[in-house]
Each structure stands twice: as C-alpha cells, then as structure tokens.
Design goal:
The protein is built from nine helices and no strands. The chain is an all-alpha fold and 173 residues long.
C-alpha cells in the first residue's frame, strides 16, 4: 500500500530568490514586531537619539581617541582604581547582616551602652579609622586644589605627639 508523502514547501537553490521570498513573507508573519520597531524608531527620532547615534558614527575616530585619552589620564586611572577597590569592598560585605540592619527589624532603638559596646569592637574601630583616614585624604586633596599651604605645627605638637604615641603604641595590657 502507498504511503502518503509529507508536503514540503519548495525552497529554491538560488539564495537570492530565497531571500526575496522570505522578505515578501516577512511583513505578514511579523506584523506586531514590525509595528513595535516602527514605534521604537519614532520615539528614538523624537528624543533625538538617532541624530546622536549618527553623530557618534560620523565622528567615531574622534570619540574613541577622546575616550582613550580620558581613560589614560591620571584622573581616569585613579577613577578606575577606586572603582575596582570599591567593588572588592562590596564583595566582602555580609549582605545578610546589612539587610537585617537596614530593614529596621529592631523594634526598639539600642541603648547608649549597647552603642558604646558596638563602637568599641575591633571592626567598628577599623571602620572608623578608615573613615577618618579617608577624610584626611579628601581634606589633603581639597587643600591642594585650593592652593592652601599645610598649617604650621603648634608649639606643643611634639609633646602631644610623644604622649599619644606612648599611649597608642605601647598600650598597657
């Protein structure tokens, strides 16, 4: 007994004719996608994004050179380094503890004694020391930017330095 043959759509061997046939069928098969694309193009035209993209493509060599110059400048390198340092710091944070802290799960605010105990922990002191050192770095940069000179040392600076160094460098245990 004869077996029925599956109907197959004829696809020409010439790729150009195949592409033309697919192009003729595309508007019928992809009506919604084409309408969405036209709407997107119109919005981009209304906002001027097509003109911006055109300008960027026209001046691509200049744009690439300026971006490369900016990335190779001292400020660009420092910005990239600081960004990587902050990303490394963020990866080390305990997100669970941070979420619990910021979600306000505590119904009562902590007592002053509890705050004092928390502030005396080694991690809190390390964080405060980093914050103070960052403030020193920012203050130094601001001083350099405004052109101010470093303030003169007070007459008793050496006494205070020796006193504090004895206290902090050789703690009594």
């Amino acid at each position: 007994m004869a077996m029925p043959v599956d109907f197959r759509e004829f696809t020409p061997k010439d790729a150009r004719n195949d592409l033309l046939r697919r192009l003729e069928q595309a508007p019928h098969e992809h009506v919604e996608a084409l309408l969405s694309t036209y709407e997107l193009l119109q919005r981009m035209h209304d906002k001027g994004l097509i003109d911006v993209a055109n300008g960027l493509l026209s001046a691509s060599d200049t744009v690439v050179e300026r971006c490369a110059d900016m990335a190779l400048s001292r400020e660009g390198v420092n910005g990239i380094r600081v960004t990587f340092m902050l990303i490394n710091l963020l990866s080390a944070l305990d997100v669970g503890r941070m979420h619990a802290l910021l979600s306000g799960s505590d119904s009562q605010p902590p007592s002053m004694l509890k705050l004092g105990r928390d502030a005396m922990s080694s991690d809190a002191r390390r964080g405060m020391a980093a914050a103070v050192r960052l403030l020193n770095i920012f203050g130094s940069a601001l001083r350099k930017q405004t052109g101010e000179s470093r303030p003169a040392a007070t007459p008793h600076a050496s006494f205070w330095k020796s006193l504090t160094s004895r206290f902090y460098d050789n703690p009594v245990r």
